[in-house]
Amino acid sequence: MAADGAGELLQAKVSTSASSVSKEATEHDTLKYHLLGPSLTKAGQDTVDQQKVSEVIYNASKGSKFFNNEEVKDKNLTQKIERILVKKRQLERLDLASDRRRADDYITELEMTRDLSQTVVHIDCDAFYAAVEELDRPELKDVPMAVGKGVLTTCNYHARKFGCRSGMAGFVAQKLCPDLISLPLNFEKYTAKAQEIRTILAEYDPRFESASIDEAYLNITDYCNENDLKPWDAVMQLRAEVHEKCRITISAGLAPNAKIAKVASNRNKPNGQFMVTNDRVTVLAFMRDLPTRKVNGIGRVFERELDAIGVKTCGDIYSFRQYLSKLFGEKAFQFLMQTYLGLGRTSVQPAEDYERKSVGTESTFRDMSDPNELRDKLRWIAEELEKDMTRTQFKGRTLVLKIKLYTYEVLTRQFAPPKAVCSADDLYNYALPMFAKLEKEIPTMKLRLMGLRCTHLVSTKKPEKDFFGMGLQRFSSTDSHDSDGNNSSRTVTDNKGEWQVWPDSEFEASERQERQAELEEAERLSQEYAQQECNEEEALEEANRRRKHGREILPNPIPREKGGQKLDSGIGFRKPETGYKKPEPDKPVKEVWRCPVCQRPQDADERSFNEHVDFCLSKQAIKETAQEHFPLPLQAVALRETAGRENANERRRGRSSHKRKLDPADRGMKKLCSGVAEKG
DNA sequence: CATTTTAAT
DNA sequence: CTGCATTAAAATG
């Protein structure tokens, strides 16, 4: 969900004050900026007086423990930035010719991977929850309204004029806008509406990728070729279709890759679209003036660090290329260079394809210090986690205990039990010693949060029979992980990784019951789709799939025209049709079939293709893949055989698994900015 | 150097 | 002023 709101004003203030003015004033300003929250970014809302807004927020939160903690964090960051600047001044006296050369070589290498042959679209629903609520109560369209009680998950554009935004505490929002109407969350409703929209998206790209409940990436290259449409017109059509059938307005960004598409979708919001054409010069020009903060992966912290050394826009990155890896680390360096060049992934894929790495639960409560009460709480968390482990069908080889003190300070401890665990008893028994140890270390064990998480997951899914009726080797809970600690027979992620993902920077204060209700709704919807779209055989498989996965999967809806096609059971899966995609006349193409298991292109020869698929299957990447592919006709995909067609990220993808490995450049950079690299 | 912890998104 | 997941870097031993 786009967190609209202007940051430019304060951003400018932060930058100037960072270099001059008194230190106290500086800290005051950066803190206020920090308090504006993570969602102050992207699109601008010029009608808002950010000065006033930040003043109100500051005064409203002043004195709270939360505030104090933010103050501490801000001070630490300011110190960290000071260290970065010191380090940079040291570097300036050194000869960095080799670093510069290395950066230039990397740029050359990256440039060879540039792929301008694809069109990626980022779809973003406008004030989604608020818009859904307005469908039921049209009178709310004309007044400032927000969704979410204690904290706003989103608000309509009237409310945004007052400075309200997602992620803001409810009482703060009320101060900014006394007439604000706050509605409780009705999550099933939003999920149902999201599914309606997804049904339409699937017709444009059946393998579209949901990024959150109201955001998705599509690769519309094939769609445009098949229907002889220009990307712009295809997206106009898509948006009109969504508006007409779902009564929801969406904004879209079109670009040669996902990273730019994401930025672009914010340019003409709400109810608009923006395109960055597939042209190197256009891309570079677009990046040159783009403030760093607009890029996915650069948040409040990294923005300030970059600003401190003089990088305000993505174009500024270039002239600092020789410093970046020493100041921010290697991954950050790579990420920034790709950002400067406007490179990003061109591939999108359903979220089920992502590999889950951990399952955890945590809960916040009133300050608590009684040891017995805390143990009860821990026990309860363990029971909650057991449910999640059962649902997602995992055991964990490592258990992580997390606590948050009443001061908001967070601590974690981990332990690797002798065996993979998932039962509440085991979870509790292994967590308790960690907890007891913490009790000894911490003078006043007064907590506001406790959490448990399992990592180094091991699937506990029953092998049963696989999709083709071939027996699969049984794998025990402890022998199916490879040396990376990853499990190659990983199950499909549960839908919390997917449509239950909160919109960016937004959250709900919902209780587990609400989530349960949502799951039930998802199940119901899934059944509906099964009936609508599948023939009897397929419906049976659909039912089977749900049995195997519980209620966890909410697959991409099946496009109408394609869902009707019948598959030869089993074989159809492995015998792709040819001529699915028209080759472009002016470019040499080589026909290949894409392996449904590992997603890698294979020679378009039936025998070798089947051999390859067998190989992949024997490596057990299988069941989930079969499931996600079953409803879809297998298509031969023609790939252009041009160098750099596949970008570096795609190539780096693991051989052993078809699951996507996350790459900093792929998906926004997670934590690459935590400070000066001081080793060596 | 491997593992643990922190912190950012 | 939440909850869940992922990632990278720093700290630790």
Compose a concise summary of this entry:
This protein has 680 residues and is an alpha+beta fold.
CATH architecture of the domain at 356-516: 2-Layer Sandwich
* Uncertain regions spanning at least 5 consecutive residues: 1-21, 466-553, 562-592, 618-658, 670-680
**How much is the average pLDDT?**
73
Shape: globular
Strand order of the largest sheet: 5-6-1-7-8
Evaluate the radius of gyration: 26 Å
CATH topology title of the domain at 356-516: Dna Ligase, domain 1
Amino-to-carboxy terminus distance:
42 Å
CATH superfamily of the domain at 356-516: DNA polymerase, Y-family, little finger domain
Q: According to CATH, what is the class of the domain at 356-516?
A: Alpha Beta
Q: How many distinct helices? A: 25
The major pleated sheet works out as: 5 strands, mixed
Query: Strand percentage, roughly?
Result: 5-15%
Helix % is: 40-55%
The SS-based structural class is alpha+beta
Number of strands: 15
Key features?
25 helices, 680 residues, Dna Ligase, domain 1, DNA-binding, alpha+beta, single chain, 5-stranded mixed sheet, 4-stranded antiparallel sheet
Structural features, described:
- With 680 residues, the chain is α+β, with helices and mostly antiparallel strands.
- Among the domains are: 88 residues, no CATH class; 161 residues, DNA polymerase, Y-family, little finger domain (Dna Ligase, domain 1, 2-Layer Sandwich).
- The protein is built from 25 helices and 15 strands.
- The strands form 4 sheets. The chain has a 5-stranded mixed beta sheet. A 4-stranded antiparallel beta sheet has the order 9-12-10-11, with helices on one face. The chain has a 3-stranded mixed beta sheet with strand order 3-2-4.
- Strand 13 and strand 14 form a beta hairpin.
- Helix 3 crosses helix 8 and helix 5 packs across helix 16.
- The radius of gyration is 26 Å and the shape is globular.
- The N terminus and C terminus are likely disordered.
- The structure holds a DNA duplex (9 and 13 nucleotides).
